[in-house]
Input
Amino acid sequence: MRLTIWISLVAAAALTLGAALSPVFAADPNPEAPLTARVLKVKGRMLVKDGEKDVELTQGATVREGQEVQASEGASGVLELSDGSRVIVFPATRLRLERPAKKTVRLDQKEGFTWIRAAKKQGDESFEVKTPVAVAGVRGTAFSADVDPEGHSAICVCEGKVEVESGGQKQMIRAGELVAARPDAMDKPFHDRSVLERPEGRRTSCLECHQGGFARYRGY
Output
């Protein structure tokens, strides 16, 4: 399983977006309202699909429920969702804002890489990231979601716990663990230390992320 971050971009994101992703603990003021996201930071060309049109995103713009965000090669940005969650969107990423149930916030991630600090949830509220082969459910934590060009997915947890469901299986992933899912199977979670000690290919991004981002800023 490959992770879809570029080393130089992660280092830049950690340095330039640190203030934008300070810990978020606010509860959703209206968990049944339509979901929106405000663009806090944008670098390069990011688009939102508005009907048949592609509109370029700028700082301060609003993305609405059902709209799809696309980050081109070399682009990145930070979104603040109306529930208080914050999302770093990395290059070559496509995701859609959804509220499939009254108190559920969902990112439908088609491809690419995101780093998410989900706001704490109360009662029956929930936050999900849906990929082509898995659904990750949380109630307030920090984690990343990767979808490669073949639709294979990986969830890596920085803080707290994330429940990942794929192919009828469910696994609880804890801080420091990564799990990979394919259309036909979900691997057992493993500690990312092995990735950090022997990074290969795009997994070198894990090393850069931990050394240049999370470890330094404790939540970017």
Q: What stands out?
A: Residues 46 and 71 are 4 Å apart (CA to CA). The first helix runs from residue 7 to 16. The longest strand covers residues 104-117. Residues 1-26, 211-220 have pLDDT under 50 and may be disordered.
